[in-house]
Amino acid sequence: MVQGSSEKRHKVTIIGSGNWGSTVAKIVAQNTKEHPELFHKDVQMWVYEEDVVIPESSPYYDPAIGTKPQKLTEIINAHHENVKYLPDIKLPDNVIANPSVQDAARDSSILVFNLPHQFFDKVCSQLKGNIVPWARGISCIKGVHVDKDITLFSEWIGEALGIYCGALSGANIATDIAQELQCQTTIAYEPPLVDLDNSSTEIQRDSRARAAKTQLVPAPPEYPPLDCNTFKNLFDRPYFRVTMVSDVAGVSLGGALKNIVAVGIGFAAGRDQRPGLHAELIRLGMVEMVNFCKEFFGETFQTDTLTLQSAGYADLYVSCHAGRNFKCAKMAVEQGCTVEEIEARVLNGQKLQGNSTAREVNTFLKARGVEHKYKFFKAVYDILEGKESDKDLYSLITAE
Ligand SMILES: NC(=O)C1=CN([C@@H]2O[C@H](COP(=O)(O)OP(=O)(O)OC[C@H]3O[C@@H](n4cnc5c(N)ncnc54)[C@H](O)[C@@H]3O)[C@@H](O)[C@H]2O)C=CC1
Ligand SMILES: O=C(CO)COP(=O)(O)O
Questions:
Q1: Any idea where the Glycerol-3-phosphate dehydrogenase NAD-dependent N-terminal domain is (predicted)?
Q2: Catalytic site residues?
Q3: Of these four, 116, 145, 235, 306, which has the most CB atoms within 10 Å of its CB?
Q4: What is the CB neighbour count within 10 angstroms for residue 384?
Q5: Sequence ranges of the chain with CATH classification 1.10.1040.10
């Protein structure tokens, strides 16, 4: 089908509205305005509803309301700003905040999942059976799901909702990108080929063989194709350059595992500022990330994703200098308290991923009997659990 000739256009919903969720909503809404041939202009953004007080110092303070708590969705829709999670950034007026995830996702053919991974389970069960069967997803979530096995969020979303889901990850500090400061990202998107004649699927390549279980429903022919080009048009901005790849495992795991390493570098930085030490620890962290991807996702993981793409080394680097996981772990050492105490005190409701991912990955490695092979991940876990001291981080990681 020739692009631009489609009768119907894709409706896009962002599931999540935190620091990164709101930033991605801004990016996507700028692009839906510029591509009316592909997308509905309005972008629904599901917001976990909460009451927010607007202080007297705020430009949005209304003396008639005073400091009475107001619904976050109402504030966003009235002022086009997520005053709690992305303050001082204007959102395009076509971002529509919606407190109901089912209502936000209704009739959407593109679902962008962007919320702290610890909250995903409930949202997923609310969406089940309430989305169009031919929808496609992109997971911006940096984390993994662990029960008996380890599952990428893209896989988990795909299995739970019966759709194909790709992954977006990169060296992306939300507050910088929200100000349109230049950066890059990586999107892994390679759905199975759809056989339009009998609606069956032929698996070309995918993150893991399990994706083969998903019977992909084709989009009706009057819609623009749900292909790489459509997704590039949805996310690429002059300040947010997208590279499309096929390695869903590498992109997803790069984003998840770097958070554990960033906590470790934060612990180190709390005591020792030497760049040489940080560089060596970052290298050791990357070695462990690559080994993990090869050992557990080796069917499709490509090492180049972690060495050459934004979702790999670049994300690790920026996270170990400017990320929240790094900063909170560093402050925890400096102030002699736990990472969770710092998180609760300084992040104003934003959520760390590194501490929970360290615990989840440890559960998985222990169950497999290979915890000892991943000394960096184990050291971070043991320090978070209070079993080891952050002072011993380097010796724990380099012990023979
Ligand atoms: N912030 C950043 O710079 C970047 C974050 N990411 C990733 O994006 C994902 C989302 O992160 P952020 O948007 O930054 O979130 P955030 O750290 O700002 O978390 C706050 C969000 O969690 C929601 N929330 C709080 N309690 C909840 C509950 N019980 N149920 C459901 N939602 C609840 C809040 O409504 C808010 O939307 C994470 O996986 C993160 O690793 C990726 C790149 C950059
Ligand atoms: O993913 C990020 C940078 O790419 C943000 O990391 P933090 O969650 O540690 O802030």
A1: 11-190
A2: 258
A3: 306
A4: 25
A5: 254-398
183, 324, 352: residue to mutate for ligand 2 pocket, most atoms within 8 A of CB: 324
294 appears as a binding residue in the annotation: no
Length reported for the chain: 400
| Residue at 240: amino acid letter | F
- Across the chain, mean pLDDT equals 93
Does this model's pTM top 0.80? My answer is yes
Place of tokens 């905040």: 97
- Counting Cβ atoms within 10 Å, is residue 302 exposed (0-12), middle (13-18) or buried (19+)? middle
CATH of 254-398, one of 1.10.1040.10, 3.30.230.10, 3.40.50.720, 3.90.105.10: 1.10.1040.10
d(CA 234, CA 232): 5
Contact between 89 and 25 (Cβ < 8 Å) = no
Q: What pLDDT shows up at residue 355?
A: 97
pLDDT at 250: 97
pLDDT in tens, 322-351: 999 999 999 999 999 999 999 999 999 999
Domain 10-246: top CATH class:
alpha beta
Q: Ligand 1 centre from 17 Cα, in Å?
A: 7
ipTM: 0.99
